[in-house]
Amino acid sequence: MQVFVANPHGYCEGVVHAIALAEQVRREYPNTPIDVLGMLVHNEKVIQQLKENQITTIKIPISHYADFLSNVDASHIIIFTAHGHDRKLDQIATQRKLHTIDATCNKVYDSFLLIENALNAGREVIYLGKKGHPEAEAALSRGKDVYLYDVDQDFNYQQLKTNNPLVISQTTLSILELKGCHLDILAMLPNAEIGNEVCSATRLRQTAVQQLPSFVDAIYIIGSTQSSNTTKLAQIAKISHPQAKVRHIAELSELDQSELNQFSAVGVASGASTPLFITNEIIEFLKHYQ
Ligand code: SF4
Fold first, then answer.
1. Residue 290: pLDDT over 90
2. 3-class secondary structure, 100
3. N or C: which terminal CB in the chain sees fewer CB atoms within 10 Å?
4. Ligand 1: distance of its center to the CA of 159 in Å?
5. Domain of 233?
6. CA angle at residue 148 from 142 to 151, to 5 degrees?
7. In this structure, are 193 and 122 located in the same domain?
8. Which DSSP state fits 151?
């Protein structure tokens, strides 16, 4: 089997940083309960590894985070994840004198700063993102004049008071859907200022998928279905390679071997939260398939 691998693949720097931070906290506080509020990285294997290191992932709806922080035993260390968190959680943690660790990625943090600067200058902000995603919820918490433009829904322009908002986007959106949203906004608001915060790690991975050879019979996108950036890779592959079968799988055991004899050339790409060993295992399997 001919196998073409989209590069880069493997963790982005934000994921590397978040995992290293959690491991460092465990080393420094070997006997203290550590809770991660949400998935540190959107990959079940990573969550399992954290569990083996006695780091607990708190899997509850985002809307329950405030309640959790209000009631958690104050002896626990709380880790906030790479894609940001609601500001009111910081207030609760401060009031309760909780020990918190913030793993927010610098690129996410930069986009929040842009929002805050715009709000401080009296401007409105349209935030392009996905309702319920931690990063989008964290962005909306920056102020009441931040309006969510959910990429899967129509946006209500009537709620804006000005005609020149700043437009900011979630770092893991698809560059293709973003383009459509920007055109829609500019058609309605020609004076809007369009920012582009899709991070370079996301952008490079998406471009690499688009650049896989056009003749591949199938493209394997490796990563969790809970990972926004991985799901976007699958969406992009379907658009850029309409003739290829696109398979989004989390690990080798999910690969459907019964269809492999239909393929002579395949592409492989992985999300920024997919451990390298999982992708490499699949690449090696496909290379040696006869
Ligand atoms: S995908 Fe981009 S923004 Fe998200 S953690 Fe990775 S580097 Fe940071």
1. no
2. strand
3. C
4. 30
5. 2-11+201-287
6. 140
7. yes
8. T
By DSSP bridging, strand 125-129 and strand 99-102 are unpaired
190 and 166, same domain (yes or no): yes
**Tell me: the pLDDT tens digits for 87-116?**
999 999 999 999 999 999 999 999 999 999
Residue 43's pLDDT is 87
Domain closes at, from 147, 182, 198 = 198
CATH code where residue 144 lies: 3.40.1010.20
- What is d(CA 158, CA 155) in angstroms, rounded to the nearest whole number? 9
Q: Does the pLDDT at position 197 exceed 80?
A: no
C-beta of residue 82 within 8 angstroms of C-beta of residue 105: yes
Question: What pTM did the predictor assign?
Answer: 0.88
Residues 127 and 92 in one domain: no
- 125 pLDDT above the threshold of 90: yes
Is 172 found in the same domain as 126?
A: yes
Of residues 135, 137, 197, 251, which has the active-site annotation?
135
Among 105, 122, 156, the domain-final residue is 105
**pLDDT tens column, 22-71:** 999 999 999 999 999 999 988 888 899 999 999 999 999 999 999 999 99
118 C-alpha to ligand 1 centroid (Å):
22
Nearest CA, atom 5, ligand 1: 14
